[in-house]
User: Fold this.
Amino acid sequence: MSWKASARHGVREAPAGLALVQDLLNTRATMAYAPDLLATPDDAQRWLTDALAAWSRVAALPAPVLLLSSADLRSVRRLRTTFEGVILAGGRTAGQDGALPPADVPVTLVPDAAGWVRIIPAGRGTRWLASALWAETLVAQQAGLWPRLKLCHNVECRAAFFDTSRNNSGVWHDVSTCGNTANLRAFRERRRLLGGTGGV
Ligand SMILES: [Zn+2]
Assistant:
């Protein structure tokens, strides 16, 4: 079991359960080669089953079997839009664009005998999925990892990647593809402008 949506882009996976948020973001269709994995209920079911198995493995927790109805499919797509909005807002004005985050999300806190507390997703159906996504977000925020989950600055790509650069300055999911495309575009634009002002 693996993070299939993220694997399509060859991106570095976010650590532990944060990769679930990343994988949801990477279900979005990008450019020509990667179709939307939430296009139909069947596609979405396949993605979700794989993603929950992968999450269960890294979180060392059981994941429920979620069978998506078409209404559930809309909920999962809304969750994706919400998390895109939250990431694009960079945590400053969360929820300004796209779907608004839910007012409240159920979780269960489970302390062990040594006093270490685990946050366990709660709820049924897509509410459980929302709970898992927000719980992973909280854990990542507490660990300082959240600002490293980014969407590629190439608007035609928007792949979600985990930035491991030392000063968290990465903006492309892959410098050699999206970075070069942008550099080439900027170079052509500069040349065009120079040609326009310098020409006869
Ligand atoms: Zn990219």
Summary: Helices lie at 4-7, 18-25, 41-59, 70-88, 126-142, 175-198. The chain has six helices and four strands. The pocket of zinc ion is lined by residues 152, 154, 157, 159, 172-174, 178 (CB under 6 Å). The first strand starts at residue 107 and ends at 111.
